[in-house]
Description:
Layout: E1 3-8, E2 12-16, H1 26-38, E3 41-44, H2 51-58, H3 68-71, E4 86-90, H4 104-110, E5 126-135, E6 143-147, H5 148-153, H6 157-163, E7 167-170, H7 172-178, H8 188-193, E8 197-200, E9 202-204, E10 211-213, E11 219-222, H9 227-241, E12 247-250, E13 257-261, E14 265-269, E15 279-286
Parallel strand pairs: 2-3
Antiparallel strand pairs: 1-2, 3-13, 4-15, 5-13, 5-15, 6-12, 6-14, 7-8, 7-11, 9-10
The structure holds N-oxalylglycine (OGA) and manganese (II) ion.
N-oxalylglycine (OGA) binds at residues 89, 112, 118, 129, 131, 143, 267, 269, 280, 282.
Amino acid sequence: xxxxxPVNNDFVAEIAxxxxxxxxxPATADGLRGALEKYAVLVIPGQPLDEARQLELAQIFGPLxxxxxxxxxxxxxxxxxxxxxxxxISNLDESGQLLEAGDIRRLINLSNQLWxxxxxxxxxxxxxxxxxxxxxxxxxxxxxxxxxxSAWDALDPALQSRIGELIAVHDYFYSRSLTGFDLAGIPxxxxxxxxxxxxxxxxxxxxxxxxxxxxxSHIRSIVGMSDDDSKDLLDHLMRLATQPQHVYRHRWRxxxxxxxxxxxxxxxxxTFDEKxxxxxxxxxxxxxxxxxxx
Length: 294
Ligand code: OGA
Ligand code: MN
């Protein structure tokens, strides 16, 4: 039996009473889907999933994405993980050793520490993400989640009506540039794989009908606004949306599985000492389509 305990109003719930390493029953799958519609983040401790189980579980939420890392940086290099649908969220190389200080993958991983929502830089962005922790750091390395529904609800109505119909330009390489990635150095074939895309700035959840801010550090600009005005507005919204009353901080234990809804949350990693190994993998579910017609 699925035991669902709210941790934080209707934002985060902890789930017990299930073994996700065993084959899923239809009732458990329904229970998990229902819980993710009601809450936006599910914490499920004690689930040492292998890659195949994690992929199978993720598919109850919809079709899976291919990892950007697998299609870009590691397209011609060996990967640590066997499946291209799993994103490698670790500081380890393909043989499981800590990445060298100068390894480009360290720089790329740093952008996970900016507030974002997964794959908003793809035409069809991600609905759910499922992150499974294999090795965790003794201190640091928590992941923070921000509730973009309560962030929207708390906005001044005048601001809500000013931004309700805006369209934002999300660019994978823009968020990389914020953490020191040299944009001039990126090969044009990477650009072709991941060109900038448009997304609505405010979404409406299909089940609850609640509205939420669709913000991310991937946003380069707002359509029809100057770069300066875009930046001012986005900084302002980002500050409001990530105030403590909207944020939950998850401290990882080995075997934790955390599932979140990217349509109604943002998240970010937090710093930790890179002498520690941190090893996680993420399965990412595709949403039903783009948020704006292309
Ligand atoms: C992710 C992510 C942050 C972290 O897996 O999508 O952004 O703390 N992770 O590892
Ligand atoms: Mn992420």
